[in-house]
Amino acid sequence: MLAIETDNLSKNYHEFQALNNVNLKIESGSIYGFIGLNGAGKTTTMRILLNMIKASKGNAQILGQDISHVSAEFWNQVGYLIETPHAYKNMTVKENLDIYGELRMLSKHDRRKRINELMDILQLTQYKNTLVRDLSLGNNQKIGLIKALIHHPKILLLDEPTNGLDPTGLTAVRRLILDEAKNYGTTILISSHILDEMEKMVTEIGILNHGQLILQQSRNEFEKDARKTLHLKFSSASDMQAAKIVMKYILVRESPKERKIEVPIIAEKTVNQVEQTLATNQIFPISNHVERESLEKYFLREIGEKQ
Ligand SMILES: Nc1ncnc2c1ncn2[C@@H]1O[C@H](COP(=O)(O)OP(=O)(O)OP(=O)(O)O)[C@@H](O)[C@H]1O
């Protein structure tokens, strides 16, 4: 079942077309990584999905309902963090979070429990009595994230939620997102430029390029389509040279200092072929493993090829 779907979503800002016939299909319970360069149209898409701005053409459904015809209560099922979060600057962290919980109609007991739990996961407890105006950028971002998911929404839209976070913050946010999806079946649409982080979380991928969705696929499809390389390491430089000679028909990349060779896997039989060729010639690498290209490389290749 699709939790979020758009049909030919388009948006023009005067003559500039920011979105061009975008057809998002986001499965229920998935973590959908929405990837694109600056200005690709990610925030614009999310703003339309949240009814903050109107599409110029096309429509969008969330949980099967056309978002232009839903009641105010409908939005209780949705949480979001779009760019810089807004909080009351002259109130403490705890006071702000309590207001968010109240707005989402959590009982006093439930919001105290949930706020303590979230502050603990995001390492905010020590700042609970700090005024929001005195918080760092990263901690402000965490407040925005808590606001987005305090009520366990069915749908969560996160636009660059890891802005300004340090490595411990990144790990904590990742854990929170993965737990929310796993334990509550939340459908999460997330954009970020930190593709290493995205790669650790996403179950689906959508690449937006100049307002067009140029690729949309499941994680399994990405794993299958991404380029793979066979990495071979040899005990001596002479073994490495010998391996290069017997594999002359295959384009290889070498790192002579480390006595390593990388062989692009262009067909299913490549690995077997290489291993057999080496064995026939009595050349035995000391290590041998296959690596898949990163999501970042995959993304850059996809947009490069379609520029
Ligand atoms: N209100 C506006 N008026 C005119 N142009 C706009 C407006 N909002 C966005 N744009 C333009 O639309 C395009 C898409 O912007 P958007 O913010 O959606 O991109 P993005 O993918 O979220 O980028 P980033 O990764 O930098 O956040 C950009 O070229 C931007 O300048």
Task: Describe the protein in words.
The protein is 36% helix and 27% strand. The strands form three sheets. A six-stranded mixed β-sheet has the order 7-8-9-4-10-11, with helices on both faces. Strands 1, 2, 3, 5 and 6 form a five-stranded antiparallel β-sheet that branches. The protein has a four-stranded antiparallel β-sheet with strand order 13-14-12-15, with no helix packed on it. It folds into two domains: 2-224, 3-Layer(aba) Sandwich (Rossmann fold), CATH 3.40.50; 226-305, Alpha-Beta Plaits (2-Layer Sandwich), CATH 3.30.70.100. α2 packs across α3. With 307 residues, the chain is α/β, with parallel strands linked by helices. The model has no long low-confidence stretch (mean pLDDT 93). The protein contains ten helices and 15 strands. It has helices spanning 42-49, 93-103, 108-121, 137-149, 167-184, 195-201, 219-225, 237-246, 270-280, 295-305; strands spanning 2-13, 16-22, 25-27, 31-35, 57-62, 65-66, 78-82, 155-159, 187-191, 204-209, 212-218, 228-233, 253-255, 260-264, 287-292. The structure holds adenosine-5'-triphosphate. Adenosine-5'-triphosphate is lined by residues 13, 16, 18, 36, 38-44. It comes from Companilactobacillus mindensis DSM 14500. One of its GO terms (molecular function) is ATP binding. Keywords: ATP-binding, Nucleotide-binding, Transport. Residues 4-235 form the ABC transporter domain.
